[in-house]
Each structure stands twice: as structure tokens, then as C-alpha cells.
Fold this protein.
Amino acid sequence: MSRQSLCEGPGSGPPVKQRELEILLQKVKPHPSPNPTLEQYQTPAVIAAEVLYFAHGKGDLAGKKVLDAGCGTGIFAIGAKLLGAAEVIAVDTDEAALGVAMANANALGVDVSLLTVDVAEFPEPCDTVIQNPPFGSQKKHADAPFLEHALAIGSAVYTFHNGETEPWVESRVASFGGVVTDRLRFAFPIPHTFDFHRKEVVEVPATLFRIERSGRTLKSGTPHPAA
């Protein structure tokens, strides 16, 4: 795979196959000292690759300006760039996470802009926002500010939430002027990371919502309908 192949424009096929993308994303190193209050869990490469490939198929990555909100060590930002995004910005308040994200991007040969800023303070409009915010296990509805701001600045939003909170998310999306176009559901593995964890791995139901602002023309038909 040549570097040139990573820069194909809108309308072209994916620069890499989904399995190849997954293998590349497996090289993204996690946070060395995650903070339980921030719920800093790495999105598994297999899930990140599926979501990114789905977003590419929707026309939301190639040639687009993409924001990875609360990026952690950069798995979505790096994957978006590998799939042909024109500009990728990754923001987080954790400078240690951003340091690892920079090393990961350099190792995989992609150009990502990294900013130490609170998600809610990022002012620029984007074509696409991708985020895996805290699910709220430590602070109830910690994902709400992420959701609200993503809908304020993004034309298309891909956002993970605890699967058990789907009705709450749908209500919030409607109140923010958004429309859920698609859902992808996953069993999200949470490995034994912190002292309060009792099991080696716990699977948490997670839903990935694709959301558009009301009034935007909806794109047609890939699988995973909202209804």
C-alpha cells in the first residue's frame, strides 16, 4: 500500500479494505495511564474499522473535514485520514493522550491536527464528527455536552452511547434539532483496567448513532436503518 493510495478523492473507492484498516488500527497504542473519571477506554480496532468503513460508504469521510471529538489516542482520527479525509482534527483535554495520538499518527504516516481543547469550546464547523464520549458510568450524562456540541458544528455525526440509553439519546437528538438516520449496535468489551474492575472483560451494549441536522437532505440507503 503506497502513501499515494491514501489520498484518493471523493467518489473513489476506499483506499484500504476494511480488514486492512483494522490491522492498521491495531497498531494504535492506548493511553498508558487512563483516567477512570474520564472513562478512557480504547475503542477496539475491529469496531473502529467497521464504523469508519460505514462512514466512508455514506460519503462522510473522503475529501471531508472530520473532527474526532475527545480523541483519546487518535484511533478514529487516524482511520479517517487513512480513508481519505481531506482534513482531520483531533481534540482532547488530556495532553498525555494527545502525545500518544501524535506518536500513533506519525507511526502510521498520517497528518492529523491535534488540539488541547474542551470539545464544547471547539468552534469550527465540520463535515463529519466522530466521537466515543464517556458513557456516564462515572458522571451521569457525561455524554450530553459531546452530543449537543457535535450537532452544533457537524453536518453528519457519528456518536457512541451506552445501548441502554437509546431512548434518552433519541430524545436529546430531537431536542437539538437532529435526525437519527442509522444505528449500529455492538458489544463493547471493557477490559480490566482499573482497581474497581472485578472481571477480566465485561461487554457493555453500545449503540453507534449516525445523526444529521433536521433539514439536511438524507443520504440513501446503506443498511442499518433507523426504523
Observations:
- The mean pLDDT is 83.
